[in-house]
Amino acid sequence: MTAIELKNINKDYGTGISKVQVLSDVSFKAHSGELSLVLGPSGSGKSTFLTIAGGLQRPTSGQVLIDGQDISRFSEKQRDEIRLNQIGFVLQSYNLLSYLSVADQFALVDRVHKGNLSPDRLEKLLQELGIDQLVNKFPDELSGGQNQRVAIARALYTDPAIILADEPTAALDSERVKVVGRLMKEMAKQYDKAVVVVTHDLRLKDFADRIYQIMDGKMTEQPLNA
Ligand SMILES: Nc1ncnc2c1ncn2[C@@H]1O[C@H](COP(=O)(O)OP(=O)(O)OP(=O)(O)O)[C@@H](O)[C@H]1O
Ligand SMILES: [Mg+2]
């Protein structure tokens, strides 16, 4: 099933002589049960692509369909709802709240969203990510890699149909990269989620069902074993 579809997306930043076109006629589909990897060098537009795909910002032109619905026609409130209910974001900046402990980052989600992972499944997820001993810590007491894994767990906690992850392994060593790669793949295979990861981490290629490249604003699909 197509979970997210981008049709002919263009994105410019700025106007007049300072205008830069970051995405140029990008079309893309993410399917349930698949892990799609989008590769590209720094500044190529990966975060721009992912935030547009998840309705966090609007394209200059083109359509974004989530579950077949054109979200460009949605009100802010409807977009907030679809994000909360269908999408798990792992943002490049982690977006953890500095004044909440790790446990409370999840408790906060419980206040705004129902149907989250059971305590057992959350505990298993935290163990898998190697952060189960850190629940009473605050973000500034954790390393970058630990915060990154908390952010991943929080994104998965709402059991979203779609997972959008921006450089989820940037701060991780090779062993942790494999853990996260396997986890993302398991989310797709075992739980039938559509998983989209944007990254320049080539170590994630082994886990992907499809690989795309963004270069000079254009997106192209790459063969899997290149
Ligand atoms: N809000 C903005 N206003 C103006 N230019 C922007 C804005 N956001 C991004 N850009 C520019 O758009 C281009 C793409 O940025 P983007 O963050 O999408 O790249 P990226 O591939 O995610 O990079 P990185 O790998 O460093 O995270 C860059 O040249 C960036 O400077
Ligand atoms: Mg980025």
TrEMBL record:
GO cellular component labels: plasma membrane
Pfam family, one: ABC_tran
MF annotations from Gene Ontology: ATP binding; ATP hydrolysis activity; transmembrane transporter activity
Domain of life of the organism encoding this protein: Bacteria
SUPFAM superfamilies in the record: P-loop containing nucleoside triphosphate hydrolases
Assigned protein family: Belongs to the ABC transporter superfamily. HrtA family.
Subunit structure: The complex is composed of two ATP-binding proteins (HrtA), two transmembrane proteins (HrtB) and a solute-binding protein.
Cited function: Part of the ABC transporter complex hrt involved in hemin import. Responsible for energy coupling to the transport system.
Name of protein: Putative hemin import ATP-binding protein HrtA
Species classification: Bacteria, Bacillati, Bacillota, Bacilli, Lactobacillales
